[in-house]
Amino acid sequence: VVLTGWVSRMPARLHHIIACLVVAGALSAGCGGDADDHPDVATSRIAFVSDRDGYRRIYVMNADGSDQHAVSDPSHGSDRWPTWSPAGARIAFTSDQDGQDDIYVIDADGGNRRNITNTPDSGESHPAWSPDGARIAFASDREPAGLYVIDADGGNPMHVSADATNADWSPDGLQFAYFSIDPRGRRLALYWMDADGDNARVVAHIDPGAASPAWSPDNRWIAATTANDTEPLARIHDWRSIVLMDVFGRNQQVVTRNRRGTDLSPTWSPDGRRLAYEAHDDALFGDTHGRTDIHVLDLDDMSVRRLTDSRDYDAMPAWSR
Question: pLDDT at position 4, please?
Fold first, then answer.
């Protein structure tokens, strides 16, 4: 009842998805939208991590899976967790090339690699580029630990929050969304927080296991990972699926059904109509010997397409805006 006015203003395709949630209780192939063209397919790109060359580095491909090529090459260690600048000209990521995890930035073609945190005694991870391109948020175990924001050129690091680590910017860059324990009830909660760290507030209590929030481009949805105890080997495997909820943490629905492993790291297409994520195929073999590929879920018809097929580890996708 509270969301009636908000839902009525949704685009028709997402209104239809919510209608399916309310009426049928699940998303299915029958809850699709128009089969029109996706205008960003030809121009948007997906960065991801692959170890197909024997070590983990950043790859880039077109949104349809074509033209997969490496853009980073660490002299030692591995590169992980890419995130695009809003204009698509640069990629920030985590690397332990210098012996500890730092945040690096490269040009989209792989040139001009540089370490922008350079903290020998601490580790940084999970960078997220601000929508205006000026700042990068990241998690750090330096003192005080938590969420930091730094200028995109590496200047002016600022501690934002001790509670938020893996956080995502709102589309207007004014807030972060993150999951943390609500100390009042010791329950996992979805939080919003102003970009300067002020005014952190619980939006909704969330099922245990939720992580990696991804705020949709239209400011109406949050995708995340969640524990999924309905899968066949969930009792002996840390099984996770992709869940979709509105920005208020309501209308939660699991939207991926991977019967062979866990799904992680959701990222939105620029038009908000699809989600890319990493799908593990390791239910029978364990994480060490399984394979991971990048998949894309189309929210119009709930179809899933696999984009990578390296038979190794292709994961941590990030869709350019």
Answer: 30
